[in-house]
Specification:
Shape: rod-shaped
Strand content: 5-15%
Number of helices: 1
Mean pLDDT: 85
Largest sheet: 2 strands, antiparallel
Helix content: 55-70%
Length: 79
């Protein structure tokens, strides 16, 4: 193979590797956004079913945490 042909093959391989990396990152991001939307819908449904003044605490596998507090109405006394 001549040097110009070898250079073209190397360049094409590098471009293909970059394109593959970008496509993989895009697919991972799209999957994560889909999962977060599904989680949000689940939390919204859960918040509607919890009694007022309830608190839900969640710990994720990565160690992060969050707390969901369902507000009391203005007429209910605070504890």
């Amino acid at each position: 193979m001549d040097p110009l042909g070898a250079s073209a093959v190397i360049t094409a391989s590098a471009v293909a590797a970059r394109v593959t990396t970008v496509v993989c990152q895009y697919l991972r991001l799209r999957w994560r956004v889909h999962q977060e939307h599904a989680h949000r819908r689940t939390l919204e449904a859960l918040a509607r079913t919890l009694p007022r003044g309830s608190r839900l605490h969640e710990v994720h596998s990565d160690g992060s945490t969050w707390t969901l507090t369902v507000a009391r109405s203005a007429r209910e006394p605070q504890e």
